[in-house]
Amino acid sequence: MFLELKYAQDQFLGSFGFLCKKYDFSKRVLEKVRAKIRRMGIIDHVSRFNAKYGYREGWVFSNRFGRAVARLANTLSQHRKVCENTKKEKDFDCLRYV
């Protein structure tokens, strides 16, 4: 799904239905995978009322996923910094409760 969307014209697909025949898997598998990658924020559904995509209904890559990964990387780099001693004690206390 990812590659088909990546190489589609304008990175827009009206439907993923053709993938079932092309790669020989069931429609149910397609629906499950599409739902999972949509929940992760990798793809978004575009309504036919969206002027940005020419009032076409379909699927596009989401901007949320890229922003979320960048925010996660920034948070991890901040947590790598060593803080004062009281912060260290609080971190170890939190681990004991888990």
Summarize the entry for a quick read.
The protein has 2 domains: 1-62; 63-98, no CATH class.
Low-confidence stretches: none
DSSP, total strands: 3
Arithmetic mean of pLDDT:
87
Task: Give the strand order of the largest sheet, numbering strands 1, 2, ... along the chain.
Answer: 1-3-2
Question: What sort of overall outline do the alpha carbons produce when their principal axes are compared?
Answer: elongated
Total domains: 2
Biggest sheet layout: 3 strands, antiparallel
What fraction of the residues are assigned to beta strands by DSSP? 5-15%
Overall radius of gyration: 20 Å
Through-space gap between termini: 38 Å
Q: Give the helix/strand class.
A: mainly alpha
Question: With helices defined by DSSP (H or I, 4 residues minimum), what is the helix count?
Answer: 5
- The residue fraction in helices comes out at 55-70%
> Which sequence of SSEs, written as H and E, runs from N to C?
HEHHEEHH
Question: How would you describe the overall organization of this protein?
Answer:
The protein has 98 residues and is mainly α. It folds into two domains: 1-62; 63-98, no CATH class. It has five helices and three strands; from the N terminus they run H-E-H-H-E-E-H-H. Strands 1-3-2 form a three-stranded antiparallel sheet. It is elongated and about 60 Å long.
